[in-house]
Task: inverse folding
């Protein structure tokens, strides 16, 4: 086995700035793929922006915004096959859209309606994980298990910079290294965990530097460069399928929106820095790249946006058209084989609600 | 006396206790610059400095584990867990160290740390923002547990917890952080641990409850006012438990409903029922009925009201006890 | 039928179930080459390969957390926690995921994992090798709990746990790993969860117990044989609880002592008492007395016998119930 | 702040092999200090060897052997001032002897007698920590707290290679880095966690490589070279006192004895390797070094051993002379202010035991 090297210091990039930094191209991505990637990005962006509006309108509950993180979600998932599994955090709540999940499903989740809870096997997508970093061992266990099954399925898990401080990250990464699990640990380093900046989160020079402690190669990419994320993930997928084990990818971005709809970042964030980030956000960068390449025109961009908006309109309608959830669902699905008192509880509750 | 919301009363207690005792410090996720996601720690970092109100890494076991060491260095840490269900990573430190370390030194060192957190449901939140984890805490030797239901008690019990020489977990009913303002004594205000409060006097039946369930019980008692005279006993602290108050009330009424938000099996209502089954068996004129959360994961919020013990469920339980 | 020690019966169950079902795998610290510190997994790695009996890193949350993922990949993991008190780092995964994931998929995925561990005191061990943590497990929604007291049940309940579609925690009384041999059915042997066992028939008083406390209760019943006829009810599984057996026995005897090794507050004896206070109140002729560990850290082993519920304590409790 | 560099790959050494590898000397250690260090080593070794015998004789319970790890314990503690605190694992149960703790206290701990539980403040020594890695956050919190108190006290915590897989290690180390806690994380890499070899514990190239993930300098020393351990710890203490924060020291050794008296390593270990280690064990190496330096003679060595044995004889007698523990101690010390039912429990138990 070759010695694992310390993580790279520099951020990998593909997309230039149209000026001093030149654009690169990624092997294997033709115009069709680039446009598909663009549609994916716009779908996520539209979902995110509309969700904030729906929240304001009282149509969904608290919502965790992922504006400017679409590149990392769309880029990494684009490098997977459909049979590969994704283990998201709450920040990636809509990542299922990239796997054909209906918009209404994701909206239902944020509406606290049972229609928002899917069968992971339908999309090879684990449930939204709310407690920080705890999905990481799941992804590792799944990948390890697939390897034991002699499948070449790969697992991708996404988590934040703050997540790297949790014991669950550490133990998951340790298992990943030891079991040579075909898993990709994709850290969305958006430099904030709610109000906590990275400097208070860790004294590590970079998050990718943590990888060596698990015997895992660590790479750093510009997380707002969808092609750089794609490329790094694709390399990691190849490694994983070849039986060479996990990869840790630190995708560096910046949280240019509130943590969630309930958050007021003016209490802690530098508005100047946010402004800069918003101007240079990830989809605009890709759009300009595509235009420089001549792959995308204004009209086409407008059509993509219109299509996404239409999907959202239909999605929120469908979500709102879900019949009210049946209270007896409280008692369902917790056990395959429920302890008898639960059935009595259900009957009692239904009697009381019937009476009331 | 100023009128304060429950979360403001928590904040007031922290101000007063940090002012009073220089060894009190706050640690937790987002407690500093932001002042906490519920703003319970707002203003503390500005007033007392970043070294006494510390934004920590996102690591609950690290927070509670380092707090043990901080105690050994003479500090009196108050740890915030951001939400109930995010306190579980710290259970290992809590059970194996926080509750045992004093004993391990044969009483020669104190571990006066406080762990406080918002708890409970009804707030239309995503998954795992709704747990009532008191059983995990109260079952742990060496650890005390308090759960206020009113702003004044939120201040007074937290102050008592901070001053207590033993580790105390304080669960704050987040549903009521901002529901009602109430007079809260200014300055130092301590509600001793282990003293229950009669929230409503009555003669026919005792509702035993704590935290958010006090409000449900009071509403149920009011609903039933024409039918039956219910006493509402707000336990305030689960360990130490005010057995005297509990037994006195039941000796008077002979009938009991216990209301708890947590899942039923081995919840604190079981403990209350067990104390009564042992120490008040001959006072009881009917079954001790528990109205609790169910032994299932806390549900999607659109149907959470069906899960949470509600006024109708408590009323129904009371009628069943009376009919028995 | 071969005579086996309790730990040998556990080992036998693992052999039979791994043979029967290729998706069963074992993970834990030192379970492979060494065969476990109690040798409960001896021979499994040799027989089924290092990929099905895996020595893991020293990380309990990692063990249970990866087991969740292994379930998603179609495996049926049996996780060993090396000792009771070393299972606490995994509580977070247990509460927030193991017990909730099936629900989260709306019943469309199964998480048939088993967590087994030696539990309990009396073995003259250093600190934290003696806990009885069943409350933490049984209070957790979505999780079932079984605790055998005999070799045959140790085999049968573990087999049932492994085959169960839901997550099951099995606590094995380490004090009795090697105390007595008993006939254990060869080959497949399943003791269904949720069926209690009358370990001794009696008519005047019911001792409710499980695990190591069954032996204490039986000895106490024998001591009292001339005085009073005690029924000893071995619950075997705490969730699901065999309420029918419990209520039937108490309907017959009218008197109850519940014996539990864990600390008292919110222990499973409280749950038993609460069920009785609700469902059997008019059958009870006296107080429900709990004989339990105390609400203090498990002590230095030279005085552990004073902490553990003992025959004299159970006898005393029975006499108190009879005298009431 | 200077950039934290990846950990050193090579093991630092001071003691040579009397042949190809030359001896070095450590600044500031004269003959007196070297002899004191020798006495400390022999004290620990004698304690350990006698304890195994006492266990066999049924005079103490299960015992965790630390044979060949004395160098790392004595070397690191020698670099501390008495005001500095030590946070040991169970493997360092007798480390208090280096701080003047009576032998009988440690033996009482292993006898399960309350006389074995000391006041940490009497020796600036935390209690023996049984659950792996959980003492690490305590040491970090203590060190952080001392720094907040503007003291220049340092904390040293010892733990094993297996411990580095636990979340508690990770979270403790993360806090140490962020809080710049004056703490020394000394990992006894004896290459085994009971029966689990390092290769199944982590895929990291070295354990010291983990340090960079916490922004902590990591060094590797020969853990059987008492002077190398001393020197590395002394450097770390200086850093810590100067306000430069924590250091991670990987002290590489080998477990040349069973994990504990209950363990049978023949089931998993390579006996050849153990034999080699036993021949080259840490105290013999130091003894030969001292003899090469002319600082120690045979007679003096014998006297040191005799003194240690005498201490042990007196220690076990004292431990065995402790009056039997009072059962009512069960109820003591758990709370400063015990809940009332506990007092009733005590009275009831005493009544029953009186009756019995
Ligand atoms: C175990 C746990 N602790 C605390 C929280 C509350 N919380 C939700 S998001 C968050 C910050 C997460 O930061 P990061 O990992 O950087 O991800 P990001 O939100 O930036 O995507 C916190 C503390 C939680 N969900 N889980
Ligand atoms: C949390 C926890 N899990 C498991 C154990 C059981 N156990 C005791 S020692 C040990 C191995 C420790 O290995 P290492 O950290 O390398 O230290 P060493 O014993 O080699 O000094 C284990 C698994 C424990 N004490 N604590
Ligand atoms: Mg972040
Ligand atoms: Mg080791």
Result:
């Amino acid at each position: 086995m070759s010695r694992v090297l310390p993580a790279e210091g520099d951020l990998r990039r593909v997309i230039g700035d149209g000026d001093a930094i030149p654009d690169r191209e990624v092997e294997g991505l033709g115009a069709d793929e680039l446009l598909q990637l663009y549609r994916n990005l716009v779908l996520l962006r539209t979902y995110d922006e509309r969700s904030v509006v729906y929240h304001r309108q009282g149509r969904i509950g608290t919502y965790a915004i992922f504006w400017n993180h679409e590149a990392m979600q769309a880029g990494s998932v684009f490098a997977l096959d459909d049979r590969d599994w994704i283990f998201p955090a709450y920040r990636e709540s809509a990542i299922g859209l990239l796997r054909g999940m209906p918009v209404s499903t994701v909206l239902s989740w944020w509406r606290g309606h049972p229609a928002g809870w899917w069968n992971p096997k339908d999309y090879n997508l684990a449930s939204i994980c709310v407690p920080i970093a705890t999905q990481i061992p799941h992804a590792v266990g799944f990948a390890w298990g697939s390897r034991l099954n002699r499948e070449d399925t790969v697992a991708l898990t996404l988590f934040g910079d703050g997540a790297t401080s949790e014991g669950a990250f550490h133990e998951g990464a340790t298992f990943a290294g030891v079991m040579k699990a075909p898993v990709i640990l994709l850290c969305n380093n958006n430099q904030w965990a709610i109000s906590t900046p990275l400097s208070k989160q860790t004294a590590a020079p970079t998050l990718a530097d943590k990888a060596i402690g698990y015997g895992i190669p660590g790479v750093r990419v510009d997380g707002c460069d969808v092609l750089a994320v794609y490329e790094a993930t694709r390399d990691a997928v190849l490694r994983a399928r070849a039986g060479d084990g996990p990869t840790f990818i630190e995708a560096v971005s910046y949280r240019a929106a509130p943590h969630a709809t309930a958050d007021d970042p003016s209490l802690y964030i530098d508005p100047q820095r946010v402004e800069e980030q918003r101007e240079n956000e990830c989809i605009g960068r890709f759009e300009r790249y595509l235009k420089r390449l001549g792959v995308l025109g204004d009209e086409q961009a407008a059509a993509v946006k219109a299509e996404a908006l239409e999907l959202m309109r239909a999605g929120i309608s469908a979500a709102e058209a879900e019949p009210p959830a049946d209270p007896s669902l409280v008692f369902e699905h917790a056990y395959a084989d429920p302890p008898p008192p639960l059935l009595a509880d259900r009957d009692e509750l239904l009697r009381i609600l019937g009476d009331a | 006396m100023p009128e304060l919301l429950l979360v403001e009363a928590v904040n007031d207690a922290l101000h007063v206790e940090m002012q009073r005792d220089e060894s009190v410090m706050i640690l937790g996720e987002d407690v500093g610059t932001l002042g906490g996601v519920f703003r319970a720690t707002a203003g503390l970092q500005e007033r007392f400095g970043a070294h006494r109100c510390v934004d920590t890494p996102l690591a609950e076991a690290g927070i509670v584990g380092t707090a043990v060491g901080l105690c050994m260095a003479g500090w009196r840490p108050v740890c915030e867990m951001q939400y109930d269900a995010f306190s579980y990573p710290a259970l290992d430190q809590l059970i194996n160290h926080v509750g045992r370390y004093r004993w391990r030194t044969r009483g020669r060192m104190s571990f006066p740390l406080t762990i406080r957190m918002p708890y409970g449901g009804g707030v239309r939140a995503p998954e795992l923002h709704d747990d009532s984890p008191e059983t995990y805490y109260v079952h742990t030797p060496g650890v005390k547990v308090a759960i206020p239901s009113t702003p004044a008690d939120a201040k007074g019990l937290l102050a008592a917890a901070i001053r207590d020489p033993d580790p105390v977990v304080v669960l704050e009913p987040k549903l009521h952080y901002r529901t009602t303002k109430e007079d809260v004594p200014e300055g130092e205000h301590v509600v001793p641990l282990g003293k229950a409060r009669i929230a409503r006097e009555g003669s026919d039946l005792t509702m035993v409850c704590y935290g958010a369930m006090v409000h449900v019980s009071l509403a149920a008692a009011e609903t039933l006012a024409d039918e039956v005279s219910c006493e509402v006993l707000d336990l305030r602290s689960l360990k130490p438990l005010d057995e005297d108050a509990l037994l006195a009330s039941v000796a008077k009424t002979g009938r009991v409903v216990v209301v708890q938000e947590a899942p039923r099996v081995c919840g604190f209502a079981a403990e209350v029922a067990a104390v009564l089954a042992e120490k008040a068996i001959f006072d009881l004129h009917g079954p001790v009925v528990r109205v609790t959360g169910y032994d299932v994961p806390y549900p999607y919020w659109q149907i959470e009201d069906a899960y949470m013990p509600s006024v109708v469920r408590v009323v129904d339980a009371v009628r069943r006890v009376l009919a028995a």
